[in-house]
Amino acid sequence: CMEMLMVINALILTTFIVLPNNGEKRNNRFFQLGSDFSKLVNSSTFIDKTPLIREILEEKIQKILITTPPSFGKTTNMKMLKKFLEIQVDKDGMVKKPINKSENFKLFTENNLRITTESPSIVVQNLGKFPIIFVDFKCDRDIRDYKDAVSFCKRVVHRCFKQHEYLFESEKLTEFERNLVEEWCDEDTTYDFEEIDISIGLKILSEMLCTHYDGMKSFALIDNYDSFILRANHTVKDRQEYDKIFKFFISLMSNLLKVNPH
């Protein structure tokens, strides 16, 4: 993968809040707008932090880990990055052209977001130019043992393949690769994958994207990086079982990030 943004608990700088219509606090409680960047840009409480995109791209390093306390706009900013960087395709995987007519291009330019006015060259070089693997390890269920952990990671990989379901129709992939995409996207056949298949699943996806996009490397945006491991740490009583889970998780991440030229 070309770049990786790992996030522990929360990301960066921005909180979006909605007050009650009368402008007063209701029992001192605020209401979160949520993490949909496309909707937030049109809200009266939006704070433009798009220069963050420039800061990340200008770092020129392969892996960036950002840690901040919870509820600091983590997922919102991750989705902002995704909207800015991702290649928009139709259901058949064909790139929507021209880029300046795409929904994401209009989202940034028609709302006069700071990245477009302050760093136009960054926009020209990067907006809508990269395949994105958006990985979310948010875990709201108990991880009781190694089997639960493997099952959870299998679902994570499944959701990543679903983001690129169009690869099943890609003429640039082999028949074996297209069948593999179909199996990963199917909730029923997903359960047939073994541990080794899961541990290399995200790496395989990045390889397929690189092939489909004629050598273009992917950005991997990883949200809630430690959620799954923290959950296991609290619920798995056997330390040897937990160590086994941790090693499996490291294997999954290492295959995507350390031994992956795509």
Automatic annotation (TrEMBL):
Residues 36-253 form the AAA-ATPase-like domain. InterPro entries: AAA-ATPase-like_dom. Residues 1-25 form the signal peptide. Keywords: Signal. This is AAA-ATPase-like domain-containing protein.
